[in-house]
Amino acid sequence: KPDRPDDEAHLRLKIFRREASLSLSYILPHLSVLGVDVIDERPYELAMGNGQRGFIYDFGVQVPGGAAAVRSRWTSEGRHRFMDAFSASYVGESEADGYNALVMGADLEWRDVSVLRAIGHYLRQVGVTYSQSYFAQALSSNVDIARQLIQLFRIRFDPGTGLDVKARTGARSELVDKIKKALNDVVSLDHDRILRSFLTVIDAVVRTNYYVPDRLAIALKLLPRQIPDLPEPRPEF
After folding, report:
1. Do 227 and 234 meet the contact criterion of CB atoms below 8 Å apart?
2. How does 64-102 read in b/e, with b if 16+ C-beta sit within 10 Å?
3. Contact 150, 116 (CB under 8 A)
4. Of 16, 70, 108, 216, most Cβ neighbours within 10 A?
């Protein structure tokens, strides 16, 4: 909720915990990578009876974009998306890195961000020289394209779309054309190369376990010969 009536760009985040306290030095990095600035913190300790203790950590956070961003992006759905992403990062289900800025910056779920992160790791593994932080920066600087890349992944593999093979193929082709058109407006040449690499990898994926319930590790089966920039020899799979 807004921290103060005179400053709607400030929100308050409360974390509740029983028994063990939390380390602030551990909490703060997980919040900062989600794109908010912590401006104050008010800890409370509660006596809960039977010798148990409770803790409330009340954080004042400033969000990028000011009051307009609070009204447009920090809806009830957006706040739940933020809380889920913080929780996943804190318990280790996702990594605490620059990709997490896409949760609020591109309105993506934290698991969607994990797909882009996995592709970034793959590109590094096959010799692309850009760093993970620079990959994340390129995506965060072009959030519409980042969102479209995840949409493309969903069209290709999400069984919940209800699309048959023909409709899925047509939707995929239409969206790829749209992404390529948007890439023509990317100002940075490095960002353009990075985003095209992400597009190429997503299009080279032929199978994934991403939509199988209760799978924390993401598996992507690829056709490396469809990725032209890979070093030789490129395996068939």
Report:
1. yes
2. eeeeebbeebbeeebeebbebbbebbbeeebbbbbbbbb
3. yes
4. 108
Longest dimension (CA), the chain: 66
CA gap 160, 77 in Å, rounded: 20
Rounded Cα–Cα distance for residues 159 and 144 (Å): 23
Extended strands (E) in the chain: 2-4, 7-18, 37-49, 52-62, 205-208, 220-222
What is the chain's percent helix, strand, coil content, to nearest 5?
Answer: 50, 20, 30
d(CA 192, CA 142): 10
Is it true that the peptide bond before 233 is cis, omega within 30 degrees of 0? yes
Structure tokens at 193: 């190369």
Side chain identity, residue 15: I
Assessment of whether the complete model's pTM goes beyond 0.85:
yes
Name residue, tokens 């609020």. Answer: 104
- 109-132 pLDDT, tens per residue? 999 999 999 999 999 999 899 999
Q: Determine contact, residues 44/55, Cβ cutoff 8 Å.
A: yes
Give the type of residue at 80: H
C-alpha R_g of the chain: 20
What pLDDT, on a 0 to 100 scale, did the predictor assign at position 172? Answer: 94
Helix orientation angle between 189-204 and 165-183, rounded to the nearest 10 degrees: 170
